[in-house]
Amino acid sequence: MKKHQKSKVQYIEELEAMRRQVTLFEAKVAQMEDDEDSSQKHFVRSPRQELCAEIEFIGDSDIVQAKGIR
Asked: End-to-end alpha-carbon separation of the chain, Å?
C-alpha cells in the first residue's frame, strides 16, 4: 500500500507496533547491561606484581622532523 493511501488508523497501528518493538529492545538492552554488571562482579583480578626492568632509549634524530611556530 502506498504511503499516501494509508488511513490515520493504519498510521496509529504502525506507531503502536513500533513502540512495542522499542519497548522490547529497551528490555533486551537492560537485560544485557544487568548480565554484564553481574559478570563483572564475579571477576577477580589477581594482584599485580612489581616489575623491575632496565629501559634503554635509543634516539634516532633522522626520523624526527619538527617545525617551529611563528
From this structure: 66
The pTM for the full model equals: 0.46
Residues in the chain, overall count:
70
Q: How far apart are CA 64 and CA 43, in angstroms?
A: 44
Most confident among 9-13, 37-41, 49-53 (mean pLDDT) = 9-13
CA–CA separation, 16 and 31 (whole Å): 23
Could you tell me which residues come within 8 angstroms of residue 1 by beta carbon, excluding any fewer than 6 positions away? Answer: 10
Looking at residue 27, its amino acid is A
Q: What is the dihedral of CA 10, 13, 18, 21, to 10 degrees?
A: -140
CA distance 35 to 58: 47
For the chain, domain boundaries: 7-65
